[in-house]
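hey m, so remember when u said the tokens were messed up on ur end? i reran from scratch. heres the input so u can diff it against urs
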Amino acid sequence: MKYRYDIYSGTTKIKTKAIGALSVLILGITSLALPLTFSNVAGAAKPSVPPSDLATAANGTYSVPGNAKLKMRVFVHGSNKNKPLAITSLSLSCNLSDPDSTVPDGVTGWYLPTGNWTYRLNTGSAPSLIGGANLATLASNSFNTWSTPDVSSKVNFVKGLNTSTNRARYDGQNIISWGRTSGSALAVTYTWYYTATGQVAETDTIFNNKFAWAWSSQSNCAYQGYYDAQNILTHELGHWVGLNDNYATSYANNTMFGYGSPTEVKKNSLATGDTSTVNSIY
């Protein structure tokens, strides 16, 4: 007697194979013997050793030296431009498009713990067209965007004391800062999580200070040629709450689309697909 089984990568079926009854029994016994840990469930590849300078880390999952209970995931949010734009004037564009999308996002498998989640801002690192005071405002706006009814019933985002830290490291702070990142990354988010439970231990977001950044307090407006800080931060916070990057064009109108564009603000508001996915986690 033959049995058939499907092999999947994420949600995509790779192939179907036929095996005998004895193989089915062996597979069943083997799966029962495996510990049900977060890394097994998420299908994460064996983590690599992180570089000594985390600013150079590429997309991927890394071990945490000295702490076998943790892994670190790095998300590099790329620009759709190969290099920063040369800008000669300051011009505000309004009535920018913000179409909806019902396509659900991918998930990382982790979640923020119930209760207060305190974040700290490096206001001194904010570019001049944003300013430290405005960083606090736009960060609050971005966190509020992710405070959907399901998330806010479990997690309360709290602004803590400002920080001078401008690089990612596992130090008990959840920071947002401008600093140095690798390549053409607009921003990089680092998340440390417990492999046994999937609970987040810490997360940091570093913006690339080589790009032109600005922020407009006017709804649906952005400065021509500049990357809108709230737009990109809202995307990065999606990783904090457990959502993956999506690069297919079908996700182009999701907040969690993996590329950012200048003069863009559509990530400021969640698409239907973003909301339904984050609600499924909490």
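this time it looks ok to me. The mean pLDDT is 85. if urs says something different then somethings off w ur setup not the seq
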